Amino acid sequence: MTFTDTALEKFNLFAKLLLWQLPYQKQTLSLEIIEMIDMGNGCGEGITPRRG
What are the boundaries of each domain within the chain? Predict the structure, then answer.
């Protein structure tokens, strides 16, 4: 990607470098959601809605 605006190019570089410095926390689904998902036969029919 080429820039014609040098200020925009500097900001893009700053944003890329800043992204690497931000803390990263891997988030997983809660156990309740995992228990609600029934993988079934693998055809996408395994998710059952909660009733009640």
Answer: 25-52
